[in-house]
Write a structure and sequence with these properties.
Strand content: 5-15%
Radius of gyration: 20 Å
Distance between the termini: 43 Å
Strand order of the largest sheet: 1-2-3-4
Helix content: 25-40%
Number of strands: 8
Structural class: alpha/beta
Number of helices: 6
Largest sheet: 4 strands, mixed
Oligomer: single chain
């Protein structure tokens, strides 16, 4: 912000960030908002995983601090109802939303009606809060299982984040190990992980990390998959 005068937006996933699983502290959230206010730029707070907290206490959103209309807050039903339900939502000043509507119309006219109807009916006719509580319990158990498996099979080799929610763990290999070769070998042995370079602005930059997901695989697949990764 001090050196690049053309900055228009600060993009953040402050809760259970993809790919690291890290949650930004309240102090840092306040500091980021203060920077945005001082430099006159907007913040895009992307929070698709915020309702998936299964440990610890909720941290206030940056949007909840927004008194100047600087925060564009977005979320998605794809992470809490169904991965195929590509319906999102936005809370932002009217003049920003009106521009987003025009951009959306130019992209695909509008989001299909059926997924919107399904999302609406789920929220209004079913136990939405109960559903969230249920998937939180499921993800807590599966995350714990993945962490226990990593501890059992990779504790001397790999460091990893311990998220308080969301869907992901971020694992760092020891120096001297080729991350891309490691991921390729894992795929050949039936375990798919996402190379860390897939998340970089510059895909050629150095990265020795990979992302794991615990939401989709079964318990047995988690156990077997981490054991294979450990052997590799």
């Amino acid at each position: 912000l001090q050196t690049e005068k053309n900055v228009k937006l600060i993009y953040l996933i402050p809760s259970f960030q993809n790919p690291t699983g890290i949650t930004t502290s309240l102090e840092k959230r306040k500091a980021v908002y203060e920077l945005a206010r001082r430099y006159g730029v907007m913040i895009l707070e992307d929070n698709p995983y915020g309702e998936l907290r299964f440990r610890g206490e909720d941290v206030p959103t940056i949007k909840s601090m927004d008194e100047e209309g600087l925060v564009i807050y977005v979320g998605s039903f794809s992470k809490i109802l169904s991965a195929g339900l590509r319906v999102g939502y936005v809370l932002a000043p009217d003049e920003v939303v009106s521009k987003m509507v025009v951009a959306k119309q130019g992209e695909d006219v509008h989001t299909a009606m059926l997924p919107q109807i399904l999302a609406h009916k789920f929220m209004t006719e079913y136990d939405y809060a109960g559903h969230i509580a249920n998937i939180r319990d499921i993800y807590r158990r599966k995350c714990d299982l993945m962490e226990q498996s990593l501890e059992a099979h990779m504790q001397q080799s790999v460091t990893y984040t311990r998220p308080d929610g969301g869907l992901f763990l971020w694992c760092e290999l020891p120096s001297g190990i080729s991350m891309l070769d490691y991921c390729k070998t894992a795929a050949e042995r039936g375990v798919a992980v996402v190379p860390g370079t897939a998340f970089l602005v510059d895909a050629t930059a150095s990265c020795n990390a990979f992302r794991l997901n615990f939401s989709t695989p079964s318990d047995e697949q988690i156990r077997q998959g981490i054991e294979i990764l450990g052997r590799i």
